[in-house]
Amino acid sequence: MINIIKSKCTGCGVCKKVCPQGVIEIRDKKAELTDYKSCMECGACSLNCEFDAIEVTKGTGCLIAIIKEDILKIASKGTGCECNEGCC
Ligand code: SF4
Ligand code: SF4
Questions:
Q1: More confident residue, 69 or 7
Q2: Domain 2-76 top-level CATH class
């Protein structure tokens, strides 16, 4: 779970730079999470925000992101399935 405290955010952009998933944008001089599902809840944004404007509670996000990446890697290599249903 990630919580951006807009009243503390200065829009410096550090969180955007350090986010390994690229899911933070600066809009109207405030940080915004653009894709909640892709957030790994790694905490890098929170650790690097010198204004304490981001709180990250580690949850299942990291696990979900890792599983999703693994599935994409497997899919890009091909699964061997020939059903043509577009499911894999
Ligand atoms: S690092 Fe902190 S202050 Fe800077 S944009 Fe991100 S949330 Fe805002
Ligand atoms: S917790 Fe990690 S993945 Fe999520 S927004 Fe922050 S830096 Fe990006």
A1: 7
A2: alpha beta
Domain ranges of the chain: 2-76
Check pLDDT > 90 for residue 56. yes
Using CB distances shorter than 6 Å, the residues near ligand 2 are 2, 18-21, 23-24, 33, 39-45, 56
Q: Which has the closest alpha carbon to 63: 75, 55, 71? A: 71
The atom number, within ligand 1, closest to the CA of 26 reads 5
Q: What angle do CA 57, 59, 65 make, to 5 degrees?
A: 120
